[in-house]
Amino acid sequence: MLKAKAAFSGFSVDDLAKAKAFYTETLGLQVDPDGVGVRLHLPGGGTVFAYPKEDHQPASFTILNFVVDDIDTAVDELTGRGVQFEHYDNEPKTDKKGILRGRAQNRGPDIAWFKDPAGNFLSVIQNGN
């Protein structure tokens, strides 16, 4: 069995300075320099490493989910900071704010997706009531 001391995830970005500004100023995370990239300190104590990659390709899946108590408040706050939420017209559909109301449809949590400056998908998600 692997006897690791810790674990963390990582993802690439095309512009480290833009990524650092977004994760610090827009999302309010603590971001520290770490070698060639930056270490993002996540709510709850985890970290993730973001690194520059010249031929960066944005992730086509959600790389970070931020659990919130009230998704409407979180979406409104982030929208006020310039974040644009994804809208989907196919089933399941998002509402005018970009929120998939999964709880009302008995299809899982309420979730809203957005992208970082490098085009990677992130979300805010509200589990339970």
Description:
This protein is of the alpha/beta class. The chain is 16% helix and 33% strand. It is built from two helices and eight strands. It has helices spanning 16-26, 71-80; strands at residues 9-13, 30-34, 37-41, 47-52, 62-67, 99-101, 110-115, 121-126.
Given the helix and strand composition, which structural class is it?
alpha/beta
Helix content: 10-25%
Mean pLDDT: 94
Oligomer: single chain
Please write the string of helix (H) and strand (E) elements: EHEEEEHEEE
Whole-number radius of gyration?
16 Å
The separation of the N and C termini measures: 39 Å
Unreliable residue stretches:
none
- The side-by-side strand order for the widest beta sheet comes to 1-4-3-2
Main sheet record:
4 strands, mixed
Find the count of extended strands (DSSP E, 2+ residues).
8
SSE layout:
Layout: E1 9-13, H1 16-26, E2 30-34, E3 37-41, E4 47-52, E5 62-67, H2 71-80, E6 99-101, E7 110-115, E8 121-126
Parallel strand pairs: 1-4, 5-8
Antiparallel strand pairs: 2-3, 3-4, 6-7, 7-8
Quick take:
With 129 residues, the chain is α/β, with parallel strands linked by helices.
Key features of this structure:
single chain, 129 residues, alpha/beta, 4-stranded mixed sheet, 33% strand
